[in-house]
Amino acid sequence: MDMKATKKLGLKERYNLMTRDLAWSPSYQAVKDVFPYMEYEGIKIHDWDKFEDPFRMTMDSYWKYQAEKERKLYAIIDAFTQNNGHLGVTDGRYINTLKLFLTGVSPLEYMAHRGFAHVGRQYPGAGPRVACMMQSLDEIRHAQTQIHSLSNYNKHYNGFADWRHQHDRVWYLSVPKSFFDDAVSAGPFEFIVAIGFAFEYVLTNLLFVPFISGAAYNGDMGAMAFGFSAQSDESRHMTLGLEIIKFILEQDPDNLPIVQAWLDKWFWRGYRVLTLVAMMMDYMLPKRVMSWKEAWEIYAEQNGAALFNDLARYGIKVPKGWEQACKDKDHLSHQAWNVFYNYGAAAPFHTWAPSEKDMDWLSAKYPETFDKYYRPLWQHYAKEQAEGKRFYNGTLPMLCQVCQVPMFFTEPDDPTKIAYRESEYKGMKYHCCSDGCKHIFDNEPEKYAQSWLPVHQIYQGNCFPEDVDPSSPDFNPLAEVLRWYKIRQGEDNMDYADSPDKKNFENWRSQATGN
Amino acid sequence: MSNVFIAFQKNEDSRAIVNAILADNPGAIVSDQPAMVKIDVPGHLVVRKATIEEEIGRAFDLQEMQVHLITMSGNVDETDDEFTLTWHQ
Amino acid sequence: MQIDLRTVSITPLRQTYNHIAERLGADKPASRYIEGTMNVQPDANFHYRPTWDPQHELFDPRRTRLVMRDWYALKDPRQFYYGAYTQARARMQEVAEADFEFVEERGLADRYDDAARRKALDFYVPLRHVAWGANMNGAYQCAYGYGTAITQPCLYAGMDQLGIAQYLTRLGLLLGNQGELEAGKQAWLQAPAWQGLRRLVEDTWVLKDWFELFVAQNLVLDGVLFALAYKEVDQVLSEQAGPVVSMLTRFQAEWGQDANKWVDAVMKVAAAESPENKELLSHWYAHWRGRVQQALAPIAELALGAAGADALARSVAAVDGRMNKAGLTLA
């Protein structure tokens, strides 16, 4: 056979043969039947081949590099476990941030896995399909490495053991659950803008840097290891998010208003979920990395400015609600932790009031707001606690119909006034926490009217174990809800000061360092 | 002019990558933390395979960089020889 | 001398997560596969109906006619969670890479017998498109299936097929060149011998029932095609011209064995669940068996001439044998 002139194929060309060239347009079945969801959102794509995947990974490379990451990661997890690494964290309080993570965030990784499998199947373009499917693979990696990393904490501390059950039922966990349900139930284009771009690009650093750095600063090598390891996948995800949004915008000018509206919605919904991170950073980390305010300034204001300057050439504007989020940075974490302090009896993780030292740090980081609005509150709680009357709120909060966060948020220009917004739909009144959420509701009322609001559900009697008799004289609704939540009274909940976690952590630590 | 940035886990292999980036990007600012190294550069950052190979002493596929990568910002472009991050402003 | 290493021993409060302990029947240590798989998919209190499928919940067992009391009975005997999966595939990848390098560096591709080369290119290159179709179907099953136990390995299989498509592409480039890939694609799109198979693949793309799709793709098409391509045809080429093609398709041959283990376990448990399931699965099996046989006949002939029919019959019989063992009623 004559020698063919094989010119060496460049990365781009080779990758094309390994992806795009594998696909073809069906002729025995209608394209519309093979890809049925491409039109109903109004997005117009004329040429799917214009999507460029900068990373251009083939499956053989994927297996090779991902396996290497897994080997390294599990070696660290094993070492951490064998060495009772959990005793090396700064303080037992830190472990409560991990409970928040496993119950709140890890299930979202799983939702992302299924969501990306869905869009990975539904886009007609081979390029985005492959990138989305790889992301689906990555996301189950994240879900499982987190479940595995935190498994050793589950063995020794409370509040981890019923993560699945609790994510699907407990009042504050419907905040992240509804966020991702919203994205996956939306159309394929909205999903990718919501998650690929708004969440994985714009907001991702605000979720991961606090948790991972928090782990590193507080001696938690296990969580830090999975955090850093996951982040290397995130760089591919961020790239997909940015590339896909540019692609959609370049395909047709009619796409701009649709994409902008999604950006506005998902920035706001994502920002609301980050409420939990804000309070975690400022109030739950014994050794703090930086304040929420600082994180917002670096990762949102500076980074975001660079990003939106770059996207301005497409006509994209800074999302609605950006200004309010910037104003809120001085208040968010304090107001949120106050709510969790209040409802400490009803959550499967421990809460506590900040110490004097903690408050000095908060003062320094929030010079305009902490001493004026929040220190007096914490001093009041501390006083009551010292008198043996640690406050636990016995009523239930009203949740926002959209973000499902308890409605504690104050007006952007008046931190002494709680913000209430109302909408009517089919003869029913719906309540939202802000203009941002009300706007989202008003745009798709038929969607948000479906929300499974945990507090509404409790009041409707849907959150009691089957053997409960509400007519019995000693019926205690809160106790029964806790049973239904699988929150064990006096073990998973209440103040850290009285917790078995604290006792165990201190006993074990002295066992490991004494004779 | 906004910065692009790239951050790596701190380990033996990433040391070589970081050194290569510093050699090829005169405007680079390094932030050296216990477990992570972050490099900021105004507007545009380039990672060159050839420079890394010099530093690391063996063949290096740019895709291998992903094992150590933590996060980054900017528009990505990758060829066999170079990986770049850019803000178009 | 005996060295007795000690670490500080702390008595844990529990061995595993509560939902895992419930499944295990006791609080005992659980494997990473179990902790990372069982109950991981949500099954309650979804907030919104999908706008793309308002008849169903986000995850809904009614997206298939198959009925399971417990979808997590469909465990993967390979116990693939992500870490185990990638590490298993990375080992296979290393071997495949070494094989490709070996063939290239020793000039074995260049010196390969021309007639065998032609046969190999004509038969294997268009199969890269079948693999692409399988990749799409794996994503479908993962997206709309029910329970992590089955959806997880369906995605892995789909991504494996992308890998297989890419290895077939490299085979085309190594034994031939870019022009061969183009020719193979043209054949896929237009040559009469390939149209039955292409039609079959496109028909799988519109199957709504994800478990029927599992039967059509993972059981029947993969089962028969891999036996035909990576056993029957490979053997003939090897006898004719040496093991070059075997080396370049080693990944697929090993993958087929690995995947069959999983598929057989799933089918067995699903069929044993109820007489209704057994009937349904047997019905699906019969239907797709017929279709696959029909679609593969011309390409068996393309590769093996008159011997193609017997080779195909043996490949079908192999899957029949597996399904007999799994408890299906074969027509």
Question: Unreliable stretches of chain C, pLDDT < 50, 5 or more residues?
Answer: none
- Strand percentage of chain B lies at 35-45%
The total beta strand count of chain C reads 0
Please state the CA-atom Rg of chain C, rounded to the nearest Å: 22 Å
- Using a beta-carbon cutoff below 8 angstroms, give the protein chain pair with the largest interface and the number of residues from each chain: A-C, 93 and 85 residues
The portion of residues assigned to helices of chain C is over 70%
The helix/strand order of chain B is EHEEEHEEE
- Low-confidence residue ranges of chain B: none
User: Kindly state the mean pLDDT of chain B as a whole number?
Assistant: 91
Order of helices and strands of chain C: HHHHHHHHHHHHHH
Q: In whole angstroms, how far apart are the ends of chain C?
A: 67 Å
Looking across the biggest beta sheet of chain B, what order are the strands in?
2-3-1-5
Arithmetic mean of pLDDT of chain C: 96
Describe the main β-sheet of chain C briefly: none
Number of helices of chain C: 14
Helix content of chain B: 10-25%
Taken as a percent bin, the fraction of beta residues of chain C is under 5%
Which class do the helix and strand fractions of chain B yield? alpha+beta
Describe the protein.
The complex is a heterotrimer of chains A (515), B (89) and C (331). Chain A has 515 residues and is mainly α. Chain A contains 23 helices and four strands. In chain A, α3 packs antiparallel against α11. The longest helix of chain A is centred in the middle third of the chain and has 31 residues. Chain A starts with 10 loop residues before the first helix and ends with a helix. The N terminus of chain A is likely disordered. With 89 residues, chain B is α+β, with helices and mostly antiparallel strands. In chain B, the strands form two sheets. Chain B has a four-stranded antiparallel sheet with strand order 2-3-1-5, covered by helices on one side. In chain B, strands 4-7-6 form a three-stranded antiparallel sheet. In chain B, β6 and β7 form a beta hairpin. By secondary structure, chain C is mostly helical. Chain C contains 14 helices and no strands. In chain C, α10 packs antiparallel against α12. The longest helix of chain C has 32 residues. The model of chain C has no long low-confidence stretch (mean pLDDT 96). Classes of the chains: A mainly alpha (515), B alpha+beta (89), C mainly alpha (331). Chains in contact: A-B, A-C.
